[in-house]
Amino acid sequence: MGAEVVRYTYRLRPGARAERALRGEWHRCRFLWNEAVHQHRSGNRPTFGKLSTLLTAARRSNTWLRAGSQVAQQQTLRTYGQALGHSFTVKGRGRPQPKSRKKTLPSLEYTTRGFSIWDRRLVLPKGVSVPVVWSRELPSEPTSVRVYRDSLGHWYAPFVVRREAKRAPVVDGGIGVDWGVTTTATTTDDRHDLPHLGHRSRCAAELAKAQRTMARRRRKPGRQSNGYQRAKRQAARLHKKAARQNQHDSRVWAKQVVDNHHLIAVEDFKPKFLAKSTMARKAADAAVGAAKRELIDRAERAGRKVVLVKPAYTTMTCSSCFARAKQQLGLEERTFRCETCGHTDGRDRNAARVILAVAERGHTSVDGISHFQPPSGSVDGAA
Ligand SMILES: [Zn+2]
């Protein structure tokens, strides 16, 4: 498989001085970006080479620009050039727009010439040094880094590194995955089920509380009160926390599933995120979304066979004889009972088995297979 290029992201904890320097750096880069947009609009068609020459000249005469990192400034123009290129070649991609002071978040890019890691700190040009939270070891020397701040005011650094691609163990056998609210993933093998963990519902309850506070403090027109802003920040923080936990659980789970199966049949569930649905429901849907994404990505990277199965009729069909029940199971009904062959199973377990059986027979929906149809030959990854 060879090496793959991936990003390893770490939290940064800049002190007041470093944060001021990063903001200053960002304002200079933003100024250059906006200059490039302006040049383009006034009829010039500056290439990256042309912009780069202009930058060199500008830095010679302008002490404010010279106070910043040349690498970060060059990278800004390079990114602009790429965005401009994409606006011509990628459908639906607009021209690069000016970055406003208030609405855009700081983002700076450095290539190898522009940064180093010294004494476990990220060292940037002009004497800026930022402590990094090394949550895991870098697998190799990074070739570039982006330093950015999110809407909560947290700083992060995704390092671009090369990593030896690990070959997934050779296995055969398949697994079917059915998504749900109380159990995020029910599979054909109960050792691989992913429960909807308690900390997530706790998070959802706190989030619901923060949102109620927001609603109570909301004024109709004009500027919102400080109390409202505080509740809003709290809600954003909780949202992010839940997303991080989902992602962590999903990663651990997906690795287990992918390492142990060759065929991975997944219910093609699409959460609707209706405005009317409850907070608990939204949290459950978000957990499913994260787990599904992680599972499919990982399985595809590992070269496994992934089959997305349409959810229609999966809960109404018997996984033993494929007879379809005449009526939809009520939501509160947790047990599936087949009227044709007498097979009984947990509702979601039965659905997971149906999903796997559909994929094993080379189909993507229950409609493709009929009653008593045996599997069509063996399943192999080349198909
Ligand atoms: Zn049956």
From TrEMBL:
NCBIfam families: guided_TnpB (NF040570). Residues 175-270 form the Probable transposase IS891/IS1136/IS1341 domain. It comes from the Bacteria. This is Transposase. Residues 294-355 form the Cas12f1-like TNB domain. In the C-terminal section; belongs to the transposase 35 family. Residues 230-243 have a biased composition (Basic residues). It comes from Rhodococcus spongiicola. Residues 214-250 are annotated as: Disordered. Pfam families: Cas12f1-like_TNB, OrfB_IS605. Keywords: DNA recombination, DNA-binding, Transposition. GO terms for biological process: DNA recombination; transposition. One of its GO terms (molecular function) is DNA binding.
